[in-house]
């Protein structure tokens, strides 16, 4: 990433010398001779680093006052102090106020470049650590191997290297932010910041302040908004349908010209940001009801991506459920538990209105609260341990109680009942895939078809997606 360095010194020869050294090493520079010019350049250019002279002749503020102002406004930008009249006390004082380092004039160009590189690397590591802390505990991969998930992975791989805006749609809890993070991670902006604006969590009167920032005036520091913080990176507008109409109009303009004004400001701020957006609503319906601007929709939906609901890919549920159990066991220090086949069948038939988020929460609850058995079975979660709402749509075997009167039936009827329930569970376990089910139960595919017909197991009993997968098997 190209770094811009602001040089603040009242001596033109020093500014020219520093600019030459830094530009020869591949940096972009800008200069300022006094406090007012320095403040203006700092706010408009958003430099990666500042080289600041302590003694600024004929300036309203000296270097120490500017250091305090810059640190208050942008504590993430490293500042190197320089002086030709410095003392040990001055150097120590500047370091205590947050300067990265202190250089006394005249200085060697090699030493200057070493300190600049170290300062920029330290700033980069701080940003990375902050990002990792924000992402701690989050799921940042797409789990599963279903056709829907594989197709989504392919779409992400194609759109990520471009600079196109992407609108990510899907019901709540399906992992839309995960998709956005993957797009950023696979893009050319991966080393830049990934910034999230949750449009649903902020009151309308605070959203513009958070997005565009607040202009500083005089010695009063301003505050950069998320658009500026995302410079050279990616900004995610999470649940963009909750953005007020007035703010929508302003973001349309910002997207069109890549410039905006801070609140209370009069000059334009230029940014280089890729914008992604997510929504769980039907934006076309929102447009029809005049709750969302059509021009904003077309600016955001250059590439639309749809994230499938969990109920559309039941074959991915076993892997995801076990992953969440393992993750929770590691974080909580509890013994790892596994899911019995009948429990998996229940999970695969449930509709999951809360999608992946609901599945993760349920697995954490089961790990903590599900009763333990004896011996080897103590760490197995069975169907009868699951909440009733999860069990009610499952194949009947998973709903039998311990006192079910199977022993009162003739052998043939008991065997047919068992086989019916057993095959229903296995079909659900393999997402209705006849070939995989036949292989697991050690039957020929044609023999399994005959058995299902004999037992009266209908297409509806298998799964909603069974017929489609049967066709893929070459039926």
From TrEMBL:
The keyword ATP-binding applies. CDD domains: AAA. Keywords: Activator, ATP-binding, Coiled coil, DNA-binding, Nucleotide-binding, Phosphoprotein, Transcription, Transcription regulation, Two-component regulatory system. Transmembrane segments: none annotated. GO terms for molecular function: ATP binding; sequence-specific DNA binding. Residues 142-368 form the Sigma-54 factor interaction domain. Residues 4-120 form the Response regulatory domain. It holds the Pfam family Response_reg. Residues 113-140 form a coiled coil. Residues 455-475 are annotated as: Disordered. Residues 459-475 have a biased composition (Basic and acidic residues). This is ATPase AAA. PROSITE patterns: RESPONSE_REGULATORY, SIGMA54_INTERACT_2, SIGMA54_INTERACT_3, SIGMA54_INTERACT_4. The modification 4-aspartylphosphate is found at residue 53. GO terms for biological process: phosphorelay signal transduction system; regulation of DNA-templated transcription. It comes from the Bacteria.
